[in-house]
Amino acid sequence: MSVELNHTIVHARNNRESAEFLAEILDLEVGAEWGPFIPVSTSNGVTLDFASVPAGSIARQHYAFLVADDEFDAAYARIQRAGIAYYADPGLKHPGEINHHHGGRGLYFLDPAGHGMEILTRPYGSPTSNTPASETSAR
C-alpha cells in the first residue's frame, strides 16, 4: 500500500466556525460532527478534522490547497465578497494581491483561528505553463 495522508487535526477556537469558514471558501461539505471533531473532506480524500481547543494553545499552521483555475476564481470571488483580507505572500506583506508563481495563481488568507490558508493553481516547482492544476501532479 502506498502512503497517503488520510486526515489531520486542525485546532480552532470554535471548530464549527472554522470548518464552515473553510468549507464556504473552497465550496466543500462540512461532515457530521464526530466526537470532538467537525470534518471537512477534500476531493483527494484528505479530511481536515477541526477540534476546539483553548485559544492560547493554538499554534499557527499553514494549509495549502491545490485548485483548478475555475475553482480559484470561485474561491477568490467568495473571499472578496466576504471582505476577507488576502495576500500574495505567506508573510502577509502584499495585501490585496495574488501571486503568479509557477505559471499559476495563488493567494493567502487567515482562517478564524489564525491559521494561514493558501489556494494555488500550480504546485510548487511546476514548470511555467498553462497546464490546468487538475492535469499536474502535486508534490
From TrEMBL:
User: What PROSITE patterns does this protein map onto?
Assistant: VOC
Write one Pfam family the protein is assigned to.
Answer: Glyoxalase
- Keywords recorded for this protein, A-Z: Dioxygenase, Oxidoreductase
The organism sits in which domain of life? Bacteria
Show the GO MF annotations. Answer: dioxygenase activity
**Which InterPro entries does the UniProt entry name for this protein?**
Glyas_Bleomycin-R_OHBP_Dase, Glyas_Fos-R_dOase_dom, VOC_core
What protein is this chain from? Glyoxalase/bleomycin resistance protein/dioxygenase
Organism, by scientific name, is Pseudofrankia inefficax (strain DSM 45817 / CECT 9037 / DDB 130130 / EuI1c)
